[in-house]
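Researcher: Sequence recovery benchmark, item below. Answer with residues only.
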């Protein structure tokens, strides 16, 4: 039976591996994460993000990589979903749906994320869950 749980520090290898797998799936064959650095960001004295793990038979099968945000217009915290990934061998088991439901249960604010244009499967999946694209907004970015 699939289980969804908060990640712990011993999950860092699986977390980094799944992020790298997702990057390769999206066409980035060069991403390689520093495991110790990631452990510090997630489990150090001042965590910057958090992860929910989906497990099947005790094995990490998927993740939701998140951080808190705050909407001044709604005057409440929400969740920024940076990465949602389910390993290919575990797809079609409802793990993505379970991960997103868990996020929804953790806030009465917004849960937001980006999706690469043209991803028709993801578009249909998110629409089925009741999520909608945000019209009229353009994302900007500074790189360090």
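Model:
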């Amino acid at each position: 039976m699939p289980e969804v749980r908060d990640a712990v520090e011993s999950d860092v290898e699986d977390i980094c591996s799944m992020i790298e797998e997702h990057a390769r799936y999206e066409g980035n064959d060069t991403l390689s994460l520093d495991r110790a650095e990631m452990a510090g960001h997630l489990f150090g004295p001042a965590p910057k993000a958090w992860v929910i793990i989906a497990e099947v038979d005790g094995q990490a099968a998927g993740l939701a990589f998140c951080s808190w945000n705050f909407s001044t217009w709604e005057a409440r915290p929400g969740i920024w979903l940076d990465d949602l990934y389910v390993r290919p061998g575990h797809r079609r088991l409802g793990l993505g749906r379970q991960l997103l439901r868990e996020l929804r249960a953790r806030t009465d604010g917004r849960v937001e994320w980006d999706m690469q244009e043209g991803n028709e499967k993801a578009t249909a999946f998110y629409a089925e869950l009741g999520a909608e694209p945000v019209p009229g907004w353009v994302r900007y970015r500074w790189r360090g």
